[in-house]
């Protein structure tokens, strides 16, 4: 390993234990050596077999250096490192490592060895290591100065400061971190977390959610302070868990598989390693600040970085010292030849409103893309699963996969391919977000698929058999404990045959199926029941795809928020707390309380896929639905105007029975600004269609000009691009509003639209940013610069 790493240009540093031996009374080592603890705590020149001086010889007073150096740390047999014989043994062990080519040492628990003793051992080494760092947990700074002559010291105040800044205090306060009275930059070994802290949850870790963990690495690798260490580790539930996969580390693409995280491969971290190497010792320049969570700075004429830790976009013109030219963003990709592989998941100015065309067949959907969805500015349509499924009339049979033939109630393979092509040609740019079923097959004991495939519960001819499924051993193999991730990932969801997605064979089959639809032009995926698959398995399948979809959303019903952060590096996550919050606010809690919804500790805005309701919730009582009346429409106005998340609009059909399938033979029909033949066509409702245009027009403009009437009356602007007012009271609201819109006459896009030089609905004239309007009860008004006459 050492030879191969050095041959590849990477030096090897070993976590070296000089302080202690094992902390158990007896046992056997990995090489078969028996162990037994016999030594007692020693102080000064007292013999190593002196009488007990503290309870169990453990450290009792953490402010006493003598105890720190000479008593046991958590029962670990504390070596008498002052002994010449012990020093000789430690030097012999270390010289053995050095002779094999090791170039660096991390001295574990160095705080518990007297610095003089460490110096004595180092003096006996055959050569001085190229790099030494010492683990000295000393957040008060009273001891670290005693060790700086030996080598670098791990600066434990650094990860705490970054945790506080990225979570609460603001990253702008990190400017001048080198002047806090900590270790000098040339003595500090800095890090976001280490293996101990990751398991204790005291600082940022891969479980921190949103993007703060990644962004903290971007800061560490760009700001000139200390020598950085990046932890590359594995997922765990129990903090005592050892490495997965028999400790054989496995990565794929820009992430990990089989339980490994491979943070060193994450695109922003890998890119910033190159940034760090490139800028070298160049000084800090061109500091810029937006909010206290938005900073940018240069590194001389060698590099420039901008970090946005807010839940909204940051548009700014920066002055740098870089030479003129085109540069690739190394946080989102890399330079490959003369091209940049980087790019945002959904660039700022791209249309990215999703409409879930629930139950529509392929022929009718193709026509609706051409007639309405494309001209309305819809970015994506989300369609029902297209594979062969269980026969039947109920809506949910579509989600009970039988084979991967593209033959469903919605149409044939050729119908599907034609629909994809026609939607893309109609300007539904990244057209089809496909509801993809990777977690399971059908949930009945036996039956026939709609394309004629006969199957039994764990036998799908030519595709899967018994060994390709999880059999977790619970009653009926179903999930019994919904707090147990092992059951969530490895047991059945309401009898649906749970695929063993950790199996390479299953992963290959799922990747083949997905590559087939990608080959037909599909641009996005909604991963149904993603919560019930390990994120490692999802990453492994993604790594086998022919191309990365332009948009990915994952169904993770997690209102407690304990799991969503594990999936955000894969793609967006559906934020199920959002529809619940909107229902509570619009039906009584007060919509004024929705201000700051992005600060509730949910998913970060750029990871959240939000919605008023979906096809499951429409049949329950946890969210607003078309049966809720005007509040349903007003909730859509809010979702499409307030800057949080990527919105999905459900377009569906009427039903009395929650199992009812789509009407009219699944041929979707709309008329004017509504539906026909049992279809609701919410995407055509004046208010919703108008707000799609509003959403596209305001883009990433920030929130401003907030006004509140009652707690059910709010208004706000989106920079100089748009302004909306929502009246959820049972009486009208007359108000003079101050906006940032330029003067002119604007059409209200909630009640109508701009048609040539006329407004089909209401209109207002804005002068010097001000206008007065009366908003009827349970309605809204919205204006944007694209609807200005």
Automatic annotation (TrEMBL):
Its cofactor is Ca(2+). Its EC number is 3.2.1.1. GO terms for molecular function: alpha-amylase activity; metal ion binding. Residues 352-695 form the Glycosyl hydrolase family 13 catalytic domain. It comes from the Eukaryota. It catalyses: Endohydrolysis of (1->4)-alpha-D-glucosidic linkages in polysaccharides containing three or more (1->4)-alpha-linked D-glucose units. Residues 285-395, 704-788 form the Alpha-amylase C-terminal domain. SUPFAM superfamilies: (Trans)glycosidases, Glycosyl hydrolase domain. Keywords: Calcium, Carbohydrate metabolism, Glycosidase, Hydrolase, Metal-binding. GO terms for biological process: carbohydrate metabolic process. Pfam families: Alpha-amylase (PF00128), Alpha-amylase_C (PF02806). Belongs to the glycosyl hydrolase 13 family. This is Alpha-amylase.
């Amino acid at each position: 390993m050492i030879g191969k790493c050095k041959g590849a240009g990477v030096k090897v540093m070993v976590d070296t234990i000089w302080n202690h031996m094992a902390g158990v009374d007896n046992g056997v080592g990995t090489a078969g050596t028996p162990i037994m603890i016999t030594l007692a705590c020693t102080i000064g020149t007292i013999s190593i077999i002196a009488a007990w001086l503290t309870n169990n010889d453990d450290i009792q007073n953490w402010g006493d250096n003598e105890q720190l150096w000479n008593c046991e740390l958590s029962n670990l047999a504390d070596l008498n490192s002052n002994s010449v014989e012990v020093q000789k043994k430690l030097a012999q062990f270390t010289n053995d490592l050095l002779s094999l080519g090791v170039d660096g040492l991390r001295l574990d628990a160095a705080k518990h060895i007297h610095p003089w003793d460490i110096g004595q051992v180092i003096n006996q080494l055959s050569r001085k290591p190229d790099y030494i760092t010492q683990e000295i947990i000393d957040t008060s700074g009273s001891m670290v100065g005693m060790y700086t002559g030996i080598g670098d010291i791990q600066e434990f105040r650094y990860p705490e400061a970054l945790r506080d800044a990225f979570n609460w205090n603001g990253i702008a306060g990190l400017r001048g971190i080198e002047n806090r009275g900590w270790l000098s930059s040339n003595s500090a070994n800095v890090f976001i977390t280490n293996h101990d802290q990751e398991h204790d949850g005291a600082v940022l870790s891969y479980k921190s959610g949103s993007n703060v963990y990644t962004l903290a690495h971007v800061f560490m690798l760009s700001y000139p302070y200390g020598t950085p260490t990046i932890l590359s580790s594995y997922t765990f539930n129990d903090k005592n868990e050892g490495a997965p996969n028999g400790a054989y580390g496995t990565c794929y693409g820009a992430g990990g598989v089989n339980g490994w995280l491979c943070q060193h491969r994450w695109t922003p971290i890998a890119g910033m390693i190159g940034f760090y190497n490139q800028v070298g010792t160049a000084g800090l320049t061109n500091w810029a600040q937006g909010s206290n969570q938005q900073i940018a700075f240069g590194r001389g004429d060698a590099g420039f970085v901008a970090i946005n830790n807010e839940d909204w976009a940051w548009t700014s013109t920066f002055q740098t010292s870089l030479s003129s030219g085109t540069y690739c963003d190394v946080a989102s990709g890399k330079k490959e030849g003369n091209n940049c592989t980087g790019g945002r998941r959904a660039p700022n100015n791209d249309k990215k409103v999703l409409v879930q065309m629930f139950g529509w067949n392929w022929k009718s959907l193709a026509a609706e893309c051409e007639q309405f969805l494309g001209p309305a500015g819809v970015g994506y349509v989300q369609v029902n699963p297209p594979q062969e499924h269980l026969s039947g009339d109920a809506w949910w049979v579509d989600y009970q996969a039988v084979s991967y033939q593209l033959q469903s109630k919605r149409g044939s393979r050729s119908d599907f391919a034609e629909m994809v092509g026609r939607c893309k040609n109609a300007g539904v740019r990244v057209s089809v977000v496909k509801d993809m079923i990777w977690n399971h097959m059908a949930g009945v004991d036996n039956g026939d698929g709609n394309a004629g495939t006969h199957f039994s519960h764990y036998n799908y001819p030519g595709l899967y058999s018994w060994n390709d499924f999880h059999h977790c051993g619970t009653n009926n193999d179903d999930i019994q404990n919904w707090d147990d991730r092992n059951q969530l990932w490895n047991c059945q969801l309401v009898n649906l045959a749970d695929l063993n997605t950790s199996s390479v064979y299953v992963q290959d089959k799922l990747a083949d199926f997905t590559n087939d639809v990608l080959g037909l032009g599909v641009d996005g995926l909604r991963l149904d029941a993603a919560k019930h698959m390990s994120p490692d398995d999802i990453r492994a399948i993604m790594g086998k795809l022919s191309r990365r979809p332009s948009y990915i959303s994952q169904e993770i019903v997690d209102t407690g928020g304990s799991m969503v952060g594990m999936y955000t590096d894969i793609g967006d996550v559906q934020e199920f707390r959002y529809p619940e919050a909107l229902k509570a606010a619009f039906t009584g809690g007060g919509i004024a309380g929705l201000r700051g919804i992005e600060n509730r500790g949910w998913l970060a805005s750029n990871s959240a896929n939000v919605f008023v309701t979906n096809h499951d919730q429409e049949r329950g009582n946890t969210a607003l639905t078309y049966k809720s009346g005007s509040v349903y429409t007003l909730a859509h106005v809010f979702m499409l105007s307030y800057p949080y998340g990527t919105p999905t609009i459900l377009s569906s059909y009427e039903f009395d029975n929650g199992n009812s399938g789509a009407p009219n033979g699944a041929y979707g029909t709309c008329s004017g600004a509504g539906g026909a033949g049992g279809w609701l066509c919410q995407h055509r409702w004046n208010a919703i269609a108008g707000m799609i245009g509003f959403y596209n027009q305001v883009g990433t403009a920030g929130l401003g000009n907030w006004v509140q009437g009652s707690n059910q009356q709010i208004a706000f602007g989106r920079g100089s691009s748009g302004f909306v007012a929502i009246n959820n009271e049972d009486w009208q609201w007359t108000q003079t509003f101050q906006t940032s819109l330029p003067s002119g006459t604007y059409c209200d896009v909630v009640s109508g639209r701009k048609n040539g030089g006329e407004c089909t609905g209401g209109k207002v004239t804005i002068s010097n940013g001000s206008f007065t309007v009366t908003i009827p009860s349970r309605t809204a008004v919205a204006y944007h610069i694209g609807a200005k006459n």
